[in-house]
Specification:
Length: 194
């Protein structure tokens, strides 16, 4: 019975943690893009994003991470023989990378607050894809364990994920170019009228 409780809360923790990670970097993107706004909008937006980032990181994302890790320890304690399986070693490596990503986001948040972040919104969009890839790998390992499929279907799913990530990046680039074009057009209107 303990295993089921640990597993249920492990899954809940994962959902909360990933929801926070996905939205946190999205807020970073908006925070960076606020630098392009005129005053006072720039200051107002940056202050608001800073508040949202801190709350998301401290109240949702970090507790989600802690629940995930604590329940994973509980799961392993109920079935310690699982530690001998290769799929779990790779999954734990992925989780370690994800923990590093989580803490790096905390550092980025502090740099954004101090106006020391040098990441562009485009670079942050690419960074935002990392937890998606990690989520797919971790879930696949948890579901298939040592029998991870390598057939055509698996490769098609992998290709679909890559396609989605590329499409998101292209869409973001299109939006940025459209905004720049609109800004340039608005800047020309007063000159033409005079």
């Amino acid at each position: 019975m303990a295993y089921s409780w640990f597993k249920a809360f492990h899954i809940i923790g994962i959902v909360v943690w990933f929801a926070g990670l996905f939205y946190l970097v999205r807020l970073f993107i908006y925070h960076v893009e606020a630098n392009q706004e005129p005053e006072p909008a720039k200051t107002i937006l940056k202050n608001q994003y800073q508040i949202m980032e801190k709350r998301l990181y401290n109240i949702i994302t970090t507790p989600g991470m802690l629940v995930t890790v604590a329940m994973a320890i509980g799961l392993v304690s109920t079935e310690p023989e699982v530690l001998k399986q290769g799929w779990l070693h790779f999954k734990l490596l992925c989780v370690a990378l994800l923990l590093g990503y989580h803490h790096y986001c905390g550092r980025l948040m502090k740099k954004l607050a101090a106006d020391e972040c040098r990441w562009s919104s485009q670079q942050l969009r690419a960074l935002n894809e990392a937890p998606t890839v990690m989520l797919v790998v971790i879930v696949m390992l948890a579901v298939f364990k040592n029998n991870l499929p390598t057939d055509l279907t698996a490769w098609l799913i992998f290709a679909l994920i890559i396609f989605m990530a590329v499409t998101i990046q292209l869409y973001a680039k299109k939006r940025r170019l459209d905004k720049e074009k609109l800004t340039a057009q608005i800047g020309q209107i007063p000159q033409e009228q005079s």
